Amino acid sequence: MLKRDDAVLVFIDVQGKLHGIMNDKEILDGNLERMVRCAQLLEIPVIGTEQIPEKLGTTNEPFLSMLANAPMLPKTAFSCWGESAFRDAFKSLDKNQAILIGIETHVCVYQTALDLLEEGVEVFVIADAVASRIPESKQLAIQAMRDAGAEIIPTETALFALLCDAADPCFKDLLKLIK
Questions:
Q1: Of the listed 29, 95, 108, 138, which one is catalytic?
Q2: What residue ranges define each of the domains in the chain, with the CATH number in brackets?
Q3: What is the per-residue pLDDT for 138?
Q4: Options 29, 38, 75, 138, the catalytic residue
């Protein structure tokens, strides 16, 4: 199960025109925001990435502003793990769980998940906070990640797993993210 003391939120490539053409973009954006706000509320570290930002653009608003205190690492590799800056940032946090959100599910999210699993990291893919242009591509990638050992869960499951207890002082603030 997800544990906030062991987790890192990985915010993958929500940028440029590609973000605008994602299937179910409104659902995606709402859940991306919920996951980022939850990470901030529970003090879970966040690492963001941008795929070739000089060509695809930087992280789109409102996410760029929300992630102002998180490293936003440029990359050319599709897998985040394929970039030494990401590997160094992740390893420096000394965590063993990665929560993956962003785009595209069947390319960068998929390759990142498999690489992290190979490194022995527990991977949690937030199914309604990842997207692809083509729904079938997302579904096939979700199944492949599950088959490889990643946990596939929805946003609300992740939020409550990270909170863990209704007696937590953050409970009321977390409920506001859901409503």
A1: 108
A2: 7-178 (3.40.50.850)
A3: 97
A4: 75
